[in-house]
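Let us begin with a simple case.
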Amino acid sequence: MELLDRYLREVALWLPRKQSADIVAEISADLKAEAEERAQALGRPLSRGEEEAILTRWGRPMLVASRYQPQESLIGPALLPTYYFVLKVLSLVHVLPWFLVWVWLAIFDPSWRASHPDLLGSLGPLGFNALALFALVTGIFAAVERRHRHHATLETWTARELTSAPSHDWREVSRVGSLIEIVIGLAAIAWWSGLAGSPSSFVIDDALRVTWTPLQSGFFWTLLALMVAAAGVSTANLLRPRWTAGRLGLQIALDATGVLVVCLLLPIALVHLLPGGGADAARMATLAWWINLSWRVSLVVAGFILASRSVLGIVRLGRVNRAAQIVAAG
């Protein structure tokens, strides 16, 4: 079958050299079996047109060859839904709020409009920030995908896991939890970094001054460093989901430092009344009280979460150390 031989040679051109012979032999066997079955059904040898019809159904040689090659992708189908979810969360918690701030400034703040005559151009930093976040998230997921593909961790699953008792190994780290921490951390870093070029305070209604306390009191770089370090620990946990004593110690130190920063920020008011303001003093005082209360409640909640995680980390560190001692003794 001259036509079949020419078809197989075309397929072989698109195959890896090492696997070419085996794959061509497999395709040849399938094609010959199909041709023989068709000839037996007709009770005669196939005509050239009938041979062409069989090869046409199989498709272009390049596409046939692609079916026998490993399907490579930056982010595979197993992680793709989570990847899309993370991008959506970042868009909602970071890109959209900053865009709404830009809209508010462009509509209601004449002084800001005067200092930014090119309104569309002023969106450049937000676009760059969003692009950087997209690249960072994509890089993280690509690294996780590469590790999964190398170790086949996504494929090594059995239905027995559905009914098996949950593991109580304190060294294990939840990949889902690490991924959520990375998303929240990246959003916080992006939002906090965006405040670097903002004024440390601004006036509302000629009666209230809002002060970005962390910016004005020198905590900006400390908090940014803590956020970056925490995101680094979460990324390490995602790639290697098993606690080590060193990583746990770093996590405890970061959380304890965060609690200290919260305690230092707690007495500082976020909003201050301006003397002699033209607005209703009583209404402004009530507004200032509520804003400062919300600020302090948020700090207390953050401090409680960090303190609880510190305690949990200390307990986990003790169990990890004991497990290591048992392994060493055995």
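The second case is a distinct protein. As before, the sequence precedes its structure tokens.
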Amino acid sequence: MTAASPAAQTVQHIIEANRYLVLATADTAGRPWSSPVYFAHIGFTEFFWVSSPDVTHSRNIEVRPEVGIVVFDSQVAIGAGQGVYMSAVAKLLEDDETARGIEAFSRRSVAHGGPDWTSEDVRPGAGLRLYQATADSHWILAKDGRPDHRIPVPLP
């Protein structure tokens, strides 16, 4: 995404301005499940969150890593909303993979008044684990009056 692109600027602004993403997963039978999760990101394609491996969305990722993500501000006036829609592949990060993601997650958490996080906090047996989703596409709504008209936004 280039800084000159208005669509790319919209994507960046929405992701930076919001603290939660809605993570859409499905189980082996295809039954959908959505969960809001506090997130951090690196660039605008890598997203990180902390969850128990026993919750529904984590169990779904284990069997079906393809996910949908939406980031949006739910407080805007009716008809003024804009969101970033993404398709992604998610995974549980193992011990040797957590350093980069937990550093980004901790930095954002602290900036929002939350706790500092380390890899020790998300190791096996700690109760919570670090997850990553890597987006392979972004879309935003075109503000052209047509309902649900999404336009693709090139990835960086």
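The helical segments are 6-17, 56-63, 98-111. The mean pLDDT is 92.
Keep these points in mind for the review questions at the end of the chapter.
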